[in-house]
Design brief:
The protein is α+β, with helices and mostly antiparallel strands. It has helices spanning 11-24, 40-44, 63-72, 89-97, 107-114, 116-125, 141-151, 177-192, 249-266, 297-304, 308-316, 394-407, 417-423, 427-430; strands spanning 4-7, 27-33, 47-52, 77-79, 101-102, 155-159, 169-171, 197-201, 207-215, 221-233, 236-242, 270-278, 284-290, 331-338, 340-341, 347-348, 351-352, 355-357, 364-368, 375-376, 383-391, 409-411. It contains 14 helices and 22 strands. α4 runs antiparallel to α5. The protein starts with a strand and ends in a 17-residue tail after the last helix.
């Protein structure tokens, strides 16, 4: 059984993992870069190892240093969190070869779903609807031009190894393709070390809905509800909620069945998420699978009474999922609080937090590594907190979130708190009359 876990991550997710480990009596090892030495995950872990400078390439993405930290601290297992190395099959393989348990799926499962073209083929093979598009990597503009003409505009250009909106471009006219193709390829190479691209038909005015799954080594494959992640900016999620206020029960059942068919075909183990685009007529299309814990997992934890970190550790220990009868209870919303200035095109706002007051009260959860006196580094993602509310109904959840946002005081840096206060009082949001282009249309927000 696992006795000590090294967390190959930082910030709020590292602290989140540490908390569950403490409750399970498992020792923890934090790794940190020099700019993160004062982060809370370093303070609350049982041990901490500095693995390099602020540049993530030389710290949180440096596999040899992370493996060395695990070996010198005698860690049994590594939890990758999300981002960084969480979907890196080579890292999972090296962990296994080093007799360190990787808390996640097997390397081949990560490979099968990490390459978006292979993932599309896997989904298609088990009858999961996919967006019309090419079935092989595109390496040249000439290929892209030919395929785009065959599919027909508008199209979506995507990085084959992509995720998090990197290397994605919506293109509505042929004349825009060449520049967009080159920019997206460069972005993909910088983010993933792979500039292969592919093209899909652009689904107009979609909703972004994902199905949470959990699978153990004993043959249990479970779906645990859906999350609506439609409120996003440049393909980066901002606000998530569950259950979705948009899809109907029949569509939900079909999406859950399709997701289980896919993970069963992969003989998948661990936590994962199947992401879909859903059009206005309730047609749904497979987009990708994330073979890791999602940022937005707390809202599912709230309405289904589950601790995903605990389940991941159980599965890594060869145990069954702790319960199999998940019943929906209420509604949950998450706002990602970023150190950005929405009034200046979301310009990052790193720096010293001079005041920090977390909201509290019934139905409120705050996942953060920040505090008064904490200096937000400029090296990483600008998310500094996740604010989660749980209530009996969506209407009550919205009111609770507005109350919590009003209590949430962060001074010294700009944040997205004022933006969420506008979104949550917008008529279109309240009536769930929006799609993934909501933020591009935000000048139309009715308060």
């Amino acid at each position: 059984m696992i006795e000590k876990i090294l967390i190959a991550n930082r910030g709020e997710i590292a602290l989140r993992i540490i908390r569950t480990c403490k409750e399970l009596g498992i020792k923890t090892v934090a790794v940190y870069s020099t700019v993160d030495k004062n982060s809370l995950h370093v303070k609350f872990a049982d041990e901490a190892v500095c693995i390099g400078p602020g540049d993530s390439t030389n710290s949180y993405l440096n596999i040899p240093r992370i493996i060395a930290a695990a070996e010198i601290t005698n860690a049994d297992a590594i939890h990758p969190g999300y981002g960084f190395l969480s979907e890196n099959a080579e890292f999972a393989e090296i962990c296994n070869d080093s007799n360190i348990i990787f808390i996640g799926p097997q390397p081949e499962q990560i490979r099968q779903m990490g390459d978006k073209i292979i993932a599309r083929a896997n989904a298609k093979n088990v009858g999961v609807p996919i967006v019309p598009g090419c079935e092989y990597p595109i390496t040249s503009f000439e290929e892209a031009d030919k395929i785009a003409d065959e599919i027909g505009y508008p199209i979506m250009l995507k990085a084959a190894a992509g995720g998090g909106g990197k290397g994605m471009r919506a293109i509505r006219e042929k004349s825009h393709l060449e520049l967009a193709f080159q920019v997206a390829k460069n972005e993909a190479m910088s983010a993933f070390g792979n500039d292969d691209m592919y093209i899909e038909k652009l689904i107009e005015s979609p909703r972004h809905i994902e199905i949470q799954i959990l699978a153990d080594t004993k043959g249990n494959f479970l779906h645990i509800g859906e999350r609506d992640c439609t409120i996003q900016r440049r393909h980066q999620k901002l606000l998530e909620e569950t259950p979705s206020p948009f899809i109907d029960d029949a569509t939900r059942l079909k999406m859950e069945e399709a997701s289980l068919n896919l993970v069963k075909a992969l003989n998948y183990t661990g936590a994962g998420t199947i992401e879909f685009l859903v059009d206005k007529d309730m047609n749904f299309y497979f987009m990708e699978m994330n073979t890791r814990l999602q940022v937005e997992h707390p809202i599912t934890e709230a309405v289904y009474d589950i601790d995903f970190i605990k389940e991941q550790i159980r599965i890594a220990n060869g145990l069954e999922i702790s319960k199999k009868d998940f019943r929906l209870n209420g509604h949950s919303i998450e706002c990602r609080i970023n150190a950005e200035n929405p009034d200046k095109n979301f310009m990052p706002s790193p720096g010293l937090i001079t005041a920090f007051n977390s909201p509290g009260g019934y139905g409120i959860r705050i996942d953060t590594h920040c505090y008064t006196g904490y200096n937000i580094p400029s090296n990483y993602d600008p998310m500094i907190a996740k604010l989660i509310v749980h209530a009996d109904t969506r209407e009550e959840a919205i009111k609770r979130m507005l109350r919590a946002l009003d209590e949430f005081v962060i001074e010294g840096v700009k944040t997205t708190i004022p933006l969420f206060q506008k979104i949550l009082t917008d008529k279109k949001f309240i009536e769930h009359d929006y799609d993934t282009n909501y933020m591009e249309k935000r000048e139309e927000i009715e308060v």
